[in-house]
Please model this.
Amino acid sequence: MAELPLVVLADPIDRSALERLRAGPCRVLDASADPATLPDRLTDAWGLIVRSRTKVTASLLGRAPRLQLIARAGVGVDNIDMAAAGARGVRVVNAPAAATLSVAELAVMLVLLLVRGATPQIVSTRDGRWERGTLGHELAGRTVGFVGYGRIAREVARRLSPFGVRLLAFDPFVPQAVDSTELVPFDELLARSDIVSVHAALTPENHRLLDARAFAKMKAGSLLVNVARGALVDESALLDALTSGHLGGAALDVFEVEPPVNRALLTHPRVVATPHLGASTEEAQRRAGADTVEEVLRALKGEPLTAMVAPPAGGR
Model:
């Protein structure tokens, strides 16, 4: 009897999803507890499951001659060398909807914290001070511009709309809005928005899309929220725009290097920083594990895949 395909787990996933995978037509090797051993465990791997911690480089792929599938338990695949995977004919799938609600809710929270300017008061009250004053603003009547208008941005728009805001979006891949959001060119979005909320996928073409030029086009006193990918923002240029007072504040859940090394940005009084918490809810992690495992099981059974990121160049 032929040996069952081997699926290697590089990063932890929800326990119930792992049990579901182990009940499937495969062998499962959990290497998540010791990442240093991963390359040596890929020799016979048919499938590889990763989250954001594991970087699937061309070198790592070279250690997995039998690999046919990479499953990302999350949305972004910028930790996977897609060109190298495509050249090998390795299919890549993800869990595109798993964290949508959690990330959208975090974005709304950050928008409200910035507009009200509440973070310093929260900290000072916790520290035993009672520092009142008129510092914040209302969200009503403001214009929110989305850079990228996929699933998450649309859920943010649904949640912000009852506040009485105007909604803009720039997304070259969206021909028509499905709601009241107005699609506009990038520069127009920057010039009109009181709050710019970043939701684009990271690609080589939009690396540091929000740079010094972009910040100069934004309204004086406007706000930036980034819950997408840190490398979409030029952090040095952002720090300059905040220090000069041109930008009124920034809320960042993601950074180009994580953990972040730019202490001046992290500790800036106009910055609210969180440690990449967008998908870090119990609900999102359960969905990510379940969706990923179901896609792996479909692949094992030869069924059509529902979340393939890009077709393999070589075919397999």
